[in-house]
Amino acid sequence: MNHAKHFEVYKQAVNIISKNLDMNIVITDLFVFLKDHIHLDELALIYYDVPKNRFQRLGHAVSPNKKAHLPEQLVIDNAVGYIDTVFNDAESVIVINDPALDPLATAYALHTGKSERYIGVPLVHNKDRIGGLVATRSDDIPYDKADKALFDLLKSPLALAMSNWMRHHRLVEINDQYLTQKRELANKLRGDCQHKVIGDKGGLREVMGNVQKVASLDSSIVITGETGVGKDVIANAIHNLSNRRENPFIKIDCGTIPESLIESELFGHEKGAFTGAQARKIGTFEIADKGTVFLDEIGELSLSAQVKLLRLLQHREIVRVGGPKVIPLDIRIVCATHRNLEEMVKEGSFRQDLWYRLNVFPLHIPPLRKRKQDIPDLVSYLIQKKSREMNLPGRPVPNNFDLLALSAYDWPGNIRELENVIERWMILGSGAVSFQSILNPEAHTAPCPETLSAPSRLAVAGFESITAPDQIMTLNQLNKEYIEAALKICNHQVGGEGGAAARLGLPRTTLASKMKKLGIASCRAHKAPPPMR
After folding, report:
1. What is the rounded radius of gyration, in angstroms, for the C-alpha atoms of the chain?
2. DSSP code per residue over 212-277
3. CA distance 319 to 326
4. Torsion angle, CA of 162/167/168/173, rounded to 10 degrees?
5. Spacing of C-alpha 490 from chain mean position
6. Is 167 exposed, middle or buried (0-12, 13-18, 19+ CB in 10 A)?
7. Which residue, 303, 262, 298, is CA-closest to 283?
8. How is residue 471 annotated by DSSP?
9. Are the beta carbons of 357 and 221 closer than 8 angstroms?
10. How many beta carbons lie within 10 A of that of residue 143, not counting itself?
11. For 96-105, 222-231, 379-388, which range has the lowest pLDDT when averaged over its residues?
């Protein structure tokens, strides 16, 4: 082969090899091209998978009138030793005209039941042994020097193409793993979220009405309220009611991240951006793309992080710490704080322009002491939750006096404190200890149930008491007044959702029986139908 023809063959081969990352397509096109220059019945690109002691076929082509013999996978004895021999051979192209003299050819012959001649070239890129190109022929004509020279031409471009394929394949695997982990995280977070908000028809009725209005939009939201009122639950509800509910919901407590690391955690960083940044880190905002980020205690953000957050809200893009690349993002920001951000703006510790950007739709969560009508439902939910976490065989049920004690308490720690009290009550043995013995009435100004008259006890429990003299009553009188108060606030509805039976934690038939026994007439269980005309 003269130099001009040699160069032309090389140029065409490189063009075939480099135009596609699919090795099957590359080998098929290369097979068609090589048949004009060398006799071959089958061509395969092989990857040496040493840890698994096998040869893996990546690309393959065979003549239309021939049967394929090279298997997709082949295991041979002492693969490591064989590869060492092949790659340390002085000859760059290996010709096997007698298959009995080569372990790989022998293994193929045992697999196919047919002995063939082979020609192959080991592929090395940056000193990494990555594979080989193998061709076979079934006739009796041996491969010669011209065939070896042709295969030698293919060594460098094929090694580069195979190395690129392996890197691309690895990136695809990493991306698939990342997407899988992202989906699993999103599913786990959704599974951990409480979809029903306790009090949505009681003390949080107005809040949840506003949530319904804003959830489907992408407006920024600031949730305010005392510590422990459940701001994260409302943020969960916003996400679950939005069009982003199938994507990640990620909560970040800005108060727990060190100021020196908060920018890196939120926006990510490039390798070498600062001391200790040994690799690129993807920030939380980037992970949450297409989802919702809940920034709890937003008032704890440093001023430099506030500037970057402002850019995200204005331009929907971020820049990693130490990186020049602008990364577009599609996320929704929901913030929460127990601090007065307007006062912080006046003091200069919170940016005014960021406050205006965030405070598009403010939501204020009332403290538990202002929504005591929700305490029975909250107690029921928390007992169920703690029973599951503590792996208890059954769920304890507090009596009415326990609920009165809980309703009389001031709850400075709000629902978080209530949850702790419930857990302590269950640990100590719910049947042997009362809530009143757990709570410390001397630490707060709220009155104890035992010090109140019957009407007052009904009032602190969330029931509007009827006017009655302050006197000691019989148990039947107390029960009668208790049920009448429940009927009054339930608009005299006995059964159904929101009825007195549900509020008192009784079956409807049991409540009806008690009402009959105590001489209580239900003014109306449901609205009377209009008269017939």
Report:
1. 38
2. HHHTTS---EEEE--TTS-HHHHHHHHHHTSTTTTS-EEEEETTTS-TTTHHHHHH-B-TTSSTT-
3. 5
4. 130
5. 41
6. exposed
7. 262
8. -
9. no
10. 23
11. 96-105
pLDDT tens across 102-154, in order? Answer: 666 666 666 665 667 778 788 877 777 777 888 888 777 778 888 888 888 88
| Dihedral sign (CA 408, 411, 415, 417) | negative
- CA 79 to each of CA 53, 55, 86: distance values in angstroms, whole numbers, following the listed order: 6, 9, 10
Q: Residue 516 has what DSSP assignment?
A: H
pTM: 0.54
Q: Does residue 125 sit in helix, strand or coil? A: strand
Phi, psi of 433 (to 5 degrees): -140, 145
Of 36-40, 228-232, 285-289, 468-472, minimum mean pLDDT range: 468-472
Alpha carbon distance 141, 130 (integer Å): 30
CA distance 236 to 365: 14
Helix (H) or strand (E) holding 364: strand 361-364
- Tell me which residue has tokens 């009927």: 487
Helices (H), 19-102: 23-34, 79-88
Q: What is the DSSP string of 336-362?
A: EESS-HHHHHHHTSS-HHHHHHHTTEE
- Identify residue 504 by its one-letter amino acid code: L
**Overall average pLDDT of the 381-401 stretch:** 84
What per-residue string of b and e applies to 369-398 under the rule 16 or more CB within 10 Å gives b? bebbbbbbbbbebbbeebeeeeeeeeeeeb
Gap between the Cα atoms of 175 and 190, Å rounded? 22
Q: Could you tell me the pLDDT band of residue 82, with boundaries at 50, 70 and 90? A: low
Backbone angles phi, psi at 42, to 5 degrees: -150, 145
Return d(Cα 219, Cα 340) in angstroms, integer.
21
236, burial (CB in 10 Å: exposed 0-12, middle 13-18, buried 19+)? buried
Q: Nearest-CA neighbor of 156 among 191, 122, 207?
A: 122
**Closest to 479 in 3D by CA, of 437, 442, 513, 447:** 513
The answer to whether 17 and 158 have CB atoms below 8 angstroms apart is yes
Beta bridge partner(s), residue 223: 336, 363
Beta-bridge mates of residue 265: none
Count CA within 13 A, CB hemisphere, residue 309. Answer: 33
CA 418 to centroid of chain Cα atoms: 28
Q: How many CB atoms lie within 10 A of CB 338?
A: 16
Please give the structure tokens belonging to residue 25: 């397509």
Selection from 102, 150, 159, 91 nearest residue 131 by Cα: 159
If we measure between CA atoms, which residue out of 347, 346, 245, 344 comes closest to residue 300? Answer: 344
Structure confidence at residue 456 (pLDDT) = 45
